[in-house]
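I am still getting used to backbone structure tokens and would like to learn alongside you. Label the sequence line and the structure token line clearly, so we can match residues to local backbone shapes. Go ahead whenever you are ready, and we will take it from there:
>
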Amino acid sequence: MADVIFFEKPGCGGNARQKALLEQAGHRVIARDLLSEPWTAETLRPFFGDRPVADWFNRAAPAVKNGEVAPESMDEAEALAAMVERPLLIRRPLMQVGDRRDCGFETDLVDAWIGLGGGVPAQKMEGCLRPDMPPCPKP
């Protein structure tokens, strides 16, 4: 099984479910605090691969939800600068296994990449299960 470096927002229920699923599949999860990591554009960019810039963003971030940040109108440099300044904007989790990096937790993609040991759960594993809830508590 894989050693997964897992950049999370501490206290996030969604990230807790994702880590538990990885551990149940036999992976070793090495959790790191996404919000306190000293990101640069160069260290952050590889996690997004060839995804469109708008897909790099955490849609539940208050600045995105209230329209202050409009991911669809940003180019790569603007998006990376905003995320380095405000890591809460980053789609999470960020995961690294070996030299490969990815963002988000799309179960089909994670299963194809490192395996989820017995199938993909039917429940939603990415994003907040209750979008009507206030933001997760700060760590």
Remarks:
- The first helix runs from residue 13 to 24.
- The CA atoms of residues 105 and 126 lie 5 Å apart.
